[in-house]
Amino acid sequence: MGPDIDVLVIGGGIVGLATAREILVRRPSTHLVVLEKEAGLARHQSGHNSGVIHSGVYYRPGSLKARLCVRGREQLLRYLGDRGIPHTLTGKVIVATRSSQIARLEELLRRARMNGVPGLQRLDARGIRALEPEVRALHGIHVPGTGVVDYAAVCRSYAADIERAGGTVRTRAPVTTVSASVESVEVRLGSGESIHARYLVNCAGLYADLVARAAGANVEEQVVPFRGEYYLLKRERRGLVRGLVYPVPDPRLPFADVHFTPTVNGEVLVGPNAVLAFAREGYRWGVIRPGEFAPILVFRGFMRLARRFWPVGVREAYRSLDRNAFLRDLRRM
Hints:
Layout: E1 5-10, H1 14-26, E2 32-35, E3 52-53, H2 64-83, E4 87-88, E5 92-96, H3 102-114, E6 121-124, H4 125-131, E7 139-143, E8 147-149, H5 151-164, E9 168-170, E10 175-180, E11 185-189, E12 194-202, H6 208-214, E13 226-227, E14 231-232, E15 244-247, E16 259-262, E17 268-271, E18 275-276, H7 290-297, H8 300-321, H9 323-331
Parallel strand pairs: 1-2, 1-12, 2-9, 5-15
Antiparallel strand pairs: 3-8, 4-8, 5-7, 6-7, 10-11, 11-12, 13-18, 14-17, 16-17
Helix pairs in contact: 1-5, 8-9
């Protein structure tokens, strides 16, 4: 059977919607459909994040991540301005609270300069207090171009762009099976409906590996789900920070430590930690799906990760269960 449409995108998060939008920008005549399994867009990773517009401080100079972060920030800010999407360039201060962290701070500054991050400023203790009066640290870096936005709002705007360009965005459309042939890809939905597409773009987020395997791809990688937990500062304590405040990251770890993040709606997030989840969409301790978690336990990549970082995993789980431990780490700044 021939294809019904040209391009089918699985996933209504920011990656799927941005990809679909760009296809229509470059090839306006494309018959394109986006499928999202939930009742709305950005219900998972795209709507469960701190909303930071990063500047490119952390990435290895010359790497694809570094180039795309700097370029992507510029493009995103233009888009937000064109569409009138609320956002704020709060700036970020990265602080060293111990002398042992100063060398790492200097390395971050070197990387950021090589990556072309604009407006960087090296700070001493007095300079830090001038920007963030409640923060006590030895040295720091001010990154004025870092900001915040509601990425779910960006997703909704992308979806509107797609539909204006003639594409279709469908929610409540979970994919159950995928089968590929030489001419097309057939996708069957939970409703029993079948769609044939010339091309399939897999942006299924936490289920991207399963979708890829279902389509016949030889995928060795596997999604290992971690969740980041945040708290909100009380309204009367939001004035503790003016912008984003981050500690110097530990280069041995694949994530940043807990930090302060103002949001576009005036709240202040504190966190996150990084806790192994027992389900791909395991946002709470009580969400356990053995059918999803059991394959992770025997995945070689996870076993390597666990051997290397098990002390960190224990610490993160403890910090998840004990608010006082979470608070102690925040107070170090």
